[in-house]
C-alpha cells in the first residue's frame, strides 16, 4: 500500500481526502488542518490521524506522499519541507505565488527524482485530451486564432471574506479560475510568451479581480484571447472552454462536448465536412471512485500510478504548473504597466 | 415507490452532455409557470412522483402545490438535499466556517439557540439535523415519503469512510419525517457495502445504470453483479447516458434486472415524457 497524508482540508482537500481514502492502493494515514472543526469531525467519525502542524505530521508518520491543498501562500514552505523529507508531492493549483520559489521547488523535486504533480484537473477530462490530439493531427490546417474562456458564479455579491479577497495571497480570479484556462492553453496549444492588453477587473470583490481579459501570444507565434469571469451568474457552475480556429475549420471544446467544424473532411479521423459533435460519454476516463467528476479521481490515479511505477508524471508536473505561474506574473506586470 | 420518477435536471440547466443545451433550458424555464406546466403534463400522463433537489425555486413550486391542494392531492415529492452548488460556491468564497454561519439557521453564535449550542460544542449531528430541517422547510404540508441525500455528499462521506454520519441521517429521516431515507451515488457497489456494514439493510439507492457503463464507477460488471445478487432497492438514473442511448434500447436494458424498482428521468416535452413512461411500464 502507498501511504499518504493530506495537508489543508478546505473544499479541495476534503474532496481529495475522499478520493485518496477510496483508492484501493492507498492508505490515507493522516490529515492536517488548523480548523478545530475539521479536525474534530475526523477524530469523531474516521480512523485517520489528525494534526494541526504539518511538520509534526511528516515527522510522525511513515509516508510515501503528501497532498497539499492549503491556501496558495503556504505551498512553498510546505512543498519544500515535504520534498526535503523525500516525499512525493501532489500540490493544488496554482502552484506558487512567486516564480523564484516555484523554480526552487521544481529543482528540488527533479534532483531528488520525486513524483510531483499539480492539480490542473482539466487535463484528465477526455474532451480536452481529444482537443489536443486533434490539433496535433493538423485537421484544422494552419492555426489562425484561439480563445480560452471560463465563467462561473463564485463571487456574485459585494462582501469580503477569506484569503480569497487578498491579492498577495493569490485570492483573485486570476490565480483561481484563469490559471486553469492559461494552463489548458499552454499544454494544448502552446506556451504563452507574451501578453498584452491585460485587464484585471473587480466587479463585486474589494481588493481582488473578479474578471481577467487579455491577449496572449504563444511560442509558435499564434495569438488569441483570454476571457475569464467568476462573477457570472448566467453559469450554474464553472464552465471552461477552448476554441481554436484554423484555415480548415474550428473546434470548440468544453468539459462535456467537442464541436468540430471542418471545411474539408478528414477521413483518417472519421470527420466529415461540416459539423461533427462528440460528447464526453465517448471520452470519459474510467475511474473506480467518482466524486464531482472523473477528472478528480483520474489525476490522483495517475499520481499514484507514477509513484508505484517510479516514473515521472506526463501531466501537470511542477515545471508545467510553474510555467502557468510565470504567465500569471506576465499578466500582472502587463496590467500594472498600463 | 412508483416505477416512474420524474426528475428536475431539465428545469435547472443541468445537462451532462452539453452546456449549450443547459443554457437553452435555463432560458425556457426562467418562469416558474413553465416548470409547473410541464409537471402538470406529467401528472396528466399519470406520473405521481417528482424527485427534485432542494433548489430555491422548488420552494415556489411547493407554494403553488399548497394553494391547489385538490390538483396535487396524490402527488409526492422526493426531495434530494442539499443543492450542492449553493454550498460549494459558498465554501470557495466564505470558507467552511463562513458557509456554516451562512446556512445554519438562526444566529449560530447565539448560545441560547440550538444552533449556537451545536456549533460551540461541535455537535456535528445536531448541525446536520438543523441543515436538514432548513432544507426541508419548503416542503411543509407536502407528501415526501422518500428523502434523499445527493451523491456529492454521499460519495464524499463514503470516500472519507465516515459511515456513522449516514447512519445518523438514516435515523433522523425516519424519526423526524417518518420517511424512508434514500441515497444517490456514483459509486453504488461501494455504497451498498458501506451501508450494510453499519446495519442499514435493503436501502433505496439511486445510481447511474445504463448499457454503456457511463458514470458507473468501478465498471459495469460489478454494477450488474450487485443488481443481480444483492438485496437493495435500486433506482436507475442517467439511463440514457447523457443522450448517448436511444430511449428504447436504454429502458430495454433495465428490464434485465428485475430488482430495479424505479427509473428517474427528466424531459421537457409531453411527447418525450409519454414515450419514456410507456417504455418504463413496458419493460420494468
General description of the model:
The complex is a heterodimer of chains A (338) and B (284). By secondary structure, chain A is an alpha/beta fold. Chain A folds into two domains: 143 residues, Rossmann fold (3-Layer(aba) Sandwich); 179 residues, Dihydrodipicolinate Reductase, domain 2 (2-Layer Sandwich). In chain A, 34% of the residues lie in helices and 26% in strands. Chain A is built from nine helices and 14 strands. Chain A has an eight-stranded mixed β-sheet. In chain A, strand 12 and strand 13 form a beta hairpin. In chain A, helix 4 packs parallel to helix 5 and helix 7 crosses helix 9. Chain A is globular and about 60 Å long. Chain B has a single domain, classed as NADP-dependent oxidoreductase domain (TIM Barrel, Alpha-Beta Barrel). Chain B is built from twelve helices and eight strands. Chains A and B meet through helix 1 and helix 2 of A and helix 1, helix 4 and helix 7 of B.
SSE topology:
The complex is a heterodimer of chains A (338) and B (284).
Chain A: E1 2-7, H1 11-22, E2 26-32, H2 36-45, E3 49-51, H3 54-60, E4 65-68, H4 75-84, E5 88-91, H5 99-111, E6 116-118, H6 126-137, E7 143-151, H7 174-188, E8 192-201, E9 211-218, E10 223-229, E11 239-246, E12 249-254, E13 257-262, E14 274-279, H8 294-309, H9 318-337
Parallel strand pairs in A: 1-2, 1-4, 2-3, 4-5, 5-6, 7-10
Antiparallel strand pairs in A: 7-11, 8-9, 9-10, 11-12, 12-13, 13-14
Chain B: E1 4-6, H1 19-28, H2 32-44, E2 49-53, H3 56-67, E3 76-81, H4 84-103, H5 114-120, H6 124-136, E4 146-149, H7 151-160, H8 163-177, E5 180-185, H9 188-197, E6 204-208, H10 220-229, E7 233-237, H11 247-254, E8 262-265, H12 270-283
Parallel strand pairs in B: 1-8, 2-3, 3-4, 4-5, 5-6, 6-7, 7-8
Amino acid at each position: 500500500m502507498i501511504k499518504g497524508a493530506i495537508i489543508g482540508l478546505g473544499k479541495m482537500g476534503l474532496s481529495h481526502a475522499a478520493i485518496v481514502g477510496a483508492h484501493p492502493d492507498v492508505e490515507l494515514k493522516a490529515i492536517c488542518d488548523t480548523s478545530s472543526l475539521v479536525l474534530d469531525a475526523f477524530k469523531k467519525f474516521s480512523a485517520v490521524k489528525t494534526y494541526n502542524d504539518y511538520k509534526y505530521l511528516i515527522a510522525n508518520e511513515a509516508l510515501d506522499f503528501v497532498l497539499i491543498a492549503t491556501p496558495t501562500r503556504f505551498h512553498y514552505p510546505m512543498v519544500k519541507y515535504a520534498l526535503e523529507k523525500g516525499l512525493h508531492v501532489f500540490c493544488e493549483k496554482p502552484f506558487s505565488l512567486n516564480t523564484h520559489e516555484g523554480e526552487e521547488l521544481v529543482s528540488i523535486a527533479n534532483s531528488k527524482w520525486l513524483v510531483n504533480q499539480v492539480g490542473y484537473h482539466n487535463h484528465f477530462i477526455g474532451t480536452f485530451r481529444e482537443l489536443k490530439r486533434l490539433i496535433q493531427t493538423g485537421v484544422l490546417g494552419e492555426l489562425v486564432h484561439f480563445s480560452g474562456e471560463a465563467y462561473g458564479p463564485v463571487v456574485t455579491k459585494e462582501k469580503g471574506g477569506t484569503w480569497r479577497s487578498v491579492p498577495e495571497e493569490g485570492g483573485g480570479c486570476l490565480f483561481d479560475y484563469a490559471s486553469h484556462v492559461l494552463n489548458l492553453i499552454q499544454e494544448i496549444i502552446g506556451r504563452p510568451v507574451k501578453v498584452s492588453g491585460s485587464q484585471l477587473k473587480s466587479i463585486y470583490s474589494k481588493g481582488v479581480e473578479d474578471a481577467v481579459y487579455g491577449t496572449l501570444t504563444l511560442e509558435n507565434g499564434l495569438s488569441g484571447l483570454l476571457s475569464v469571469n467568476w462573477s457570472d451568474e448566467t453559469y450554474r457552475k464553472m464552465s471552461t472552454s477552448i476554441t481554436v480556429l484554423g484555415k480548415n475549420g474550428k473546434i470548440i471544446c468544453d468539459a462535456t462536448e467537442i464541436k468540430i467544424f471542418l471545411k474539408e473532411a478528414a477521413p483518417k479521423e472519421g470527420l466529415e465536412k461540416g459539423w461533427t459533435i462528440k460528447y464526453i460519454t465517448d471520452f470519459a476516463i474510467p475511474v473506480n471512485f467518482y466524486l464531482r467528476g472523473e477528472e478528480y479521481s483520474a489525476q490522483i490515479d495517475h499520481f499514484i500510478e507514477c509513484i508505484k511505477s517510479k516514473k515521472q508524471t506526463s501531466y501537470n508536473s511542477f515545471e508545467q504548473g510553474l510555467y502557468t505561474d510565470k504567465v500569471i506574473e506576465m499578466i500582472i506586470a502587463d496590467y500594472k504597466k498600463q | 415507490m412508483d416505477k416512474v420518477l420524474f426528475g428536475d435536471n431539465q428545469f435547472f440547466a443541468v445537462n451532462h452532455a452539453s452546456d449549450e443545451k443547459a443554457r437553452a433550458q435555463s432560458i425556457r424555464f426562467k418562469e416558474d409557470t413553465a416548470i409547473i406546466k410541464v409537471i402538470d403534463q406529467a401528472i396528466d400522463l399519470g406520473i405521481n412522483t417528482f424527485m427534485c433537489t432542494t433548489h430555491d425555486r422548488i420552494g415556489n413550486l411547493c407554494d403553488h402545490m399548497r394553494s391547489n391542494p385538490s390538483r396535487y392531492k396524490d402527488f409526492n415529492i422526493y426531495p434530494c438535499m442539499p443543492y450542492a452548488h449553493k454550498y460549494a460556491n459558498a465554501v470557495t468564497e466564505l470558507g467552511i466556517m463562513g458557509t456554516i454561519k451562512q446556512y445554519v439557521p438562526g444566529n449560530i453564535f447565539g448560545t441560547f439557540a440550538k444552533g449556537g449550542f451545536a456549533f460551540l460544542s461541535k455537535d456535528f449531528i445536531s448541525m446536520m439535523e438543523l441543515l436538514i430541517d432548513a432544507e426541508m422547510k419548503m416542503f411543509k404540508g407536502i407528501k415526501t415519503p422518500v428523502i434523499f441525500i445527493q451523491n456529492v455528499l454521499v460519495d464524499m462521506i463514503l470516500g472519507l469512510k465516515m459511515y456513522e454520519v449516514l447512519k445518523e441521517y438514516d435515523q433522523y429521516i425516519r424519526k423526524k419525517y417518518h420517511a424512508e431515507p434514500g441515497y444517490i451515488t456514483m459509486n453504488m457497489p461501494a455504497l451498498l457495502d458501506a451501508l450494510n456494514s453499519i446495519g442499514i439493510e435493503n436501502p433505496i439507492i439511486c445510481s447511474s445504470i445504463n448499457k454503456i457503463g457511463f458514470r458507473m464507477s468501478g465498471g459495469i460488471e460489478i454494477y450488474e453483479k450487485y443488481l443481480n445478487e444483492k438485496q437493495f432497492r435500486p433506482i436507475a438514473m442517467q439511463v440514457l447516458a447523457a443522450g448517448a442511448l436511444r430511449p428504447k434500447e436504454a429502458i430495454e436494458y433495465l428490464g434485465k434486472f428485475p430488482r430495479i424498482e424505479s427509473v428517474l428521468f427528466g424531459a421537457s416535452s409531453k411527447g418525450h415524457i409519454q414515450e419514456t413512461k410507456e417504455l418504463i411500464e413496458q419493460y420494468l
